[in-house]
Write a structure and sequence with these properties.
Elements: E1 4-9, H1 19-33, E2 40-47, H2 49-60, E3 68-72, E4 95-103, H3 104-114, H4 117-133, H5 143-156
Parallel strand pairs: 1-2, 2-4
Antiparallel strand pairs: 3-4
Helix pairs in contact: 1-4, 1-5, 3-4, 4-5
Length: 159
């Protein structure tokens, strides 16, 4: 299955030259774990605190930084992917899952704070975001949040 994970940088000098490879690996891990059987396209923009704060303010009305933002293009039900319900890229026919923004500076500081480093934090946030694109959510402390956390742990191989 040939998924396309298109990674770009909002600015030069964001660092972390291997970030794109880690994101692609984590996104494919999540898609495979969710048994996505149609080729998909995800667009990823790497940014910093300033960039993600601007987008968070513009699209969510929240004037603060965050680690990751997910913008799904389809209304999907968690664990029940149906490519017939999804938008497709006209030229390739790939399912357009949506866009994500990752704040590399926040990812670095969180990885240090949590003691597992940048690489793991970046991969975790990517998995988290892909699950959002696939319909998972965690807006409350209820069963949906528990379901999403369980999927994240499973995909990341956490016990």
């Amino acid at each position: 299955m040939e998924h396309e994970i298109a990674v770009s940088r909002e600015k030069r000098n964001l660092g972390h030259n291997r970030a794109a490879a880690l994101i692609k690996k984590a996104a494919v891990m999540a898609l495979e774990a969710e048994r996505i059987d149609a080729p998909c396209l995800i667009s990823v923009l790497l940014t910093d605190d300033e960039g993600i704060r601007r987008v968070n303010r513009e699209f969510r009305g929240l004037d603060r930084e965050t680690d990751v933002l997910s913008f799904p293009l389809n209304e999907l039900e968690p664990g029940r992917f149906d490519p017939a319900l999804c938008e497709r890229e006209p030229d390739s026919g790939k399912v357009l899952l949506g866009d994500m923004l990752l704040d590399l500076s926040r990812c670095e500081s969180q990885g240090e704070e949590l003691g597992h480093g940048f690489d793991r934090e970046l991969m975790y946030l990517t998995v988290h975001s892909v699950l959002h694109l696939l319909g998972y959510d965690h807006t409350d402390e209820g069963p949906m949040k528990r379901q999403m956390r369980a999927r994240e742990k499973d995909i990341m191989g956490d016990d």
